Amino acid sequence: MDALSGVLAALGVEADRLEPTRAEDEASFGNGNWHLWTPNGEHHILRRYHVLHTEANLAYEARVLEHVAARGWCVPVQVVPPVRYDGHLWAVTRFVPGRPHREETAAQRAERGALLARLHADLRGLDLGPREGFFQAADLDAMGEFQGWDRGVELLREQRPELADRSERAMQRAKELVVAHDLLGLPQTIVHGDFASWNLHFDDDGRFAGVIDFALCHPDSRAWDFVIARVHRAPEMIDGYQRAAADPLSDRELAAIEPLQAVLRVLMVMAELWDGQHIGRFDEAMIARQLAKAKS
């Protein structure tokens, strides 16, 4: 509580109680969240954003959240707008009740696909232009420049030359897949960016309660939203989506999912390289796992 008192003062918020949602969030470059109860009993979330976030891209996220909230979704809209403190942007957002399924059943995975179809339908036609600091996942050149891929590989090579070589091969293969499948030419919409099981909340009776973490929402392909939602572990999502969608995925979009899986693995390596450059050490085991999945 003492460490966060300056944040609360900057936000102009009085808290009766704070509890971290995850202990590991307290010291990282990434997003962090604390349950916040006000003296009058209101329950919100105090959110710390990743250091790469800016005021402009958080304003973009806020507009997306307001748009879907107006269409009946329970989402973490801003209660108190962001302020900058200690190198991060912080805000207070709505608390979304419920909890994720502990382990999704096949029917629940199909339900997640149907919910994604509903979300895409509600986002269709919302044109906010590009989001600052965000690119199509398949735009590996832009992503690599933004996150310092070349420098990361160079530093990794000093420690593990073979991992650096494998990383470069994985990147080259992914770029070839982008061209071969015209992944940059897929139809665009605003995507959630992380419609994974852990970001969907349900009440004690299993009824859908809301969705959280729009931190990665940006214009991209619907196929990418499936990939980042870990469709390889939840193939029933596609059936649920196709049944529920007024505009089902096209054959071209369905065919894009597999090559985009390779893109995802390269982006996971890229994120590890970015972290390593700023922390001062690389998680070599994680990089090796992602490269194994990329089949480099």
TrEMBL record:
Domain Aminoglycoside phosphotransferase: 29-247
Domain of life: Bacteria
InterPro entries reported in the protein's UniProt record: Aminoglycoside_PTrfase, Kinase-like_dom_sf
Pfam families linked: APH (PF01636)
SUPFAM superfamilies: Protein kinase-like (PK-like)
The protein's name in its UniProt record: Phosphotransferase
Taxonomic placement: Bacteria, Bacillati, Actinomycetota, Actinomycetes, Propionibacteriales
